[in-house]
Amino acid sequence: MPVGLALLALGSVKLIFDIVGMHWHVAADTLLILFAAFQVVAIGLLADLVTRATRAHDEKPPASA
């Protein structure tokens, strides 16, 4: 998730730069960064769902400090 959020932040900053500095001409690399962020976040959420679904019901969560 942190990688996906970092890519999303980078893509958002680049998108704002393209909109303001390039007069609404969005570069292809900006779109690639945003699509990569979407894919990484989606795969992260799917992985979290799989781990929650396959965990034993009687298993205790690890202690948090």
Can you walk me through this structure?
The protein is mainly alpha-helical. It has 2 helices and no strands. The chain starts with a helix and ends in an 11-residue tail after the last helix. The longest helix is centred in the middle third of the chain and has 27 residues, at about 30-55. The model has no long low-confidence stretch (mean pLDDT about 90). It has helices at about 1-20, 30-55.
List the helices and strands and how they pair.
Elements: H1 2-21, H2 28-54
Task: Name the descriptors.
mainly alpha, 65 residues
Number of helical segments with 4 or more residues? 2
Radius of gyration: 18 Å
Largest sheet: none
* Model regions low in confidence, pLDDT < 50 over at least 5 residues: none
Strand content: under 5%
Mean pLDDT: 90
The H-and-E topology, N to C, reads as: HH
Give the strand tally.
0
Oligomer: single chain
- Which bin fits the share of residues in helices? over 70%
Mass-distribution shape: elongated
- Ends distance: 22 Å
Based on secondary structure, the structural category is mainly alpha
Question: Brief overview, please?
Answer:
The protein has 65 residues and is mainly α. It has helices spanning 2-21, 28-54. Helix 1 runs antiparallel to helix 2 (28-54).
